[in-house]
Amino acid sequence: MTRFVNLTSLAALLGVLSTPVSAQPACHAIESDHLRALEGSWSVDWRYRVAPGEWLDVTATSSVRKDLMGCALVERFTAELDTIPYHAISIFTEPAKGRFDRLTVDSQHGGLMKHDGHLKGDTLVFVWQTKLGNLLVRTRHTFFRNAQGVTVREQYLSRGEGATWELRQRMVYNPFRPDDSNP
Question: How far apart are CA 174 and CA 85, in angstroms?
Fold first, then answer.
């Protein structure tokens, strides 16, 4: 025996017609001048703390480009730390005006780190935290422009509730010159 199925009835039974189809909302495009200032190709003077009172000075490269139709900035950061290759990728977004996110993964740690960001005056501040046993560990990354108009990034570490912060890294993003090799 052959049965004919009413497609409208079948669709209603399966919930296809009763669930309206809506387009995905467009992303919030990068609007902040603070984030847009990061876009470009950079030679980075990186001062990296290896131990208390001991610093390693490294020249790194960074390339920051728009991606996802302007919804994000993607940074590819490359250096060599005492003969060990170092790579990091960061994705910056601005999900709402005045609110920023930064997702980072690097070859030194391997795990995905999500930093919550905000503006504090003219400084872009990103904070990440995790609990290691009973110890709360936080990092704070600040991005600001110095008197010469060059972007400076500093990373601070706090072990505890954030009452004290130690400078762990300082990076100065210098624009590539024509005689530099481009990343």
Answer: 21
The sign of the torsion formed by the CA atoms of 15, 16, 17, 20 equals: positive
* Helix/strand/coil for 21: coil
Q: Judge whether 84 and 92 are in contact, CB under 8 Å.
A: no
pLDDT in tens, 94-131: 988 889 999 999 998 888 999 999 999 999 999 999 88
* Residue 42 CB-half CA count within 13 A: 25
Is residue 84 within 8 A of residue 78, CB to CB? The reply is no
**Quick one: tokens of 36?**
């847009």
pTM: 0.79
Query: Using CA atoms, how far apart are residues 32 and 72, in angstroms rounded to an integer?
Result: 11
* Rounded alpha-carbon distances, angstroms, from residue 71 to 10, 29, 142: 39, 5, 21
Residue carrying structure tokens 């999900």: 95
Q: What is the pLDDT of residues 3-44, one digit of tens each?
A: 444 434 433 433 444 445 445 546 777 788 888 889 999 999
How far apart, in whole angstroms, are the C-alpha atoms of residue 116 and residue 130?
A: 13
